[in-house]
Design brief:
- 44% of the residues lie in helices and 17% in strands.
- By secondary structure, the protein is of the alpha/beta class.
- It has a single domain, classed as TIM Barrel (Alpha-Beta Barrel), CATH 3.20.20.
- It has an eight-stranded parallel β-barrel with strand order 1-2-3-4-5-6-7-8, surrounded by eight helices.
- The two termini are 15 Å apart.
Length: 206
């Protein structure tokens, strides 16, 4: 279920602009979408998430909430993505129940991924894979980490951080099941076309 292009929304105050970009990436073939917005208040965040959720249902794409288990449960979203400081994964799994998607950031540490797998997450994310404008201070995850993960994990692995059309193939070839992208699609003039170019990388591999 977790494979291909994993689109993560940019920080955007204008809901109409955000929805237009989200629909464009869904039209372009994004296979999973995460709502992440670090600059708006909770009321607007809830409004935006509800609207995006409807678009994801229309395109039959899983809808993930960043960080907030509360918002995920409030909207009955498909799942939530959790960072290292966002709560205990085992407790969150119990709260969500078995049917929600639970993803976990594991940065550049295979031991975090192994622990997350034990806590019944559905996927783990490693990154930043390259220098990232979104998180410029993030520690870098070596490409070999993805090869190691393929040997030690039984769940999908997502790559995130600084991924572009020029370097995405390196991560895909190393074993990433999905690549998570923000700026490389949402900051482009033609979001749909940018998305399609990323999805072609997975079709070429298969």
């Amino acid at each position: 279920m977790i494979s291909g292009l994993y689109a993560i929304t940019p920080d955007e105050v204008n809901t109409n602009n955000l929805l237009a970009k989200v629909e464009a990436t869904l039209q372009g073939g994004a296979t999973i979408l995460q709502y992440r917005n670090k600059i708006v208040n909770q009321q607007l965040k809830t409004q935006q998430a509800k609207a995006i959720q409807q678009l994801c249902k229309q395109y039959n794409v899983p809808f993930i909430i960043n960080d907030s288990v509360h918002l995920c449960m409030l909207l009955d979203a498909d799942g939530v993505h959790i960072g290292s400081e966002d709560g205990n994964l085992s407790e969150i799994r119990v709260r969500l129940g078995p049917d929600k998607i639970l993803g976990a950031s594991c940065y550049n540490r295979i031991e975090l991924a192994l622990a997350a797998q034990q806590a019944s997450v559905n996927y783990v994310a490693f990154g930043a894979c390259f220098e990232s404008n979104t998180k410029p201070q993030a520690s870098l995850a070596n490409i070999n980490l993805f090869k190691q993960a393929q040997l030690q994990l039984n769940i999908p692995v997502v790559a995130i951080g600084g991924i572009t059309l020029k370097n995405a193939h390196l991560i895909i070839d190393a074993g990433a099941n999905a690549i998570a992208v923000i700026n490389a699609i949402f900051s482009q003039d033609d979001v749909k076309s940018a998305t399609q170019q990323f999805t072609k990388l997975f079709r070429a591999k298969s």
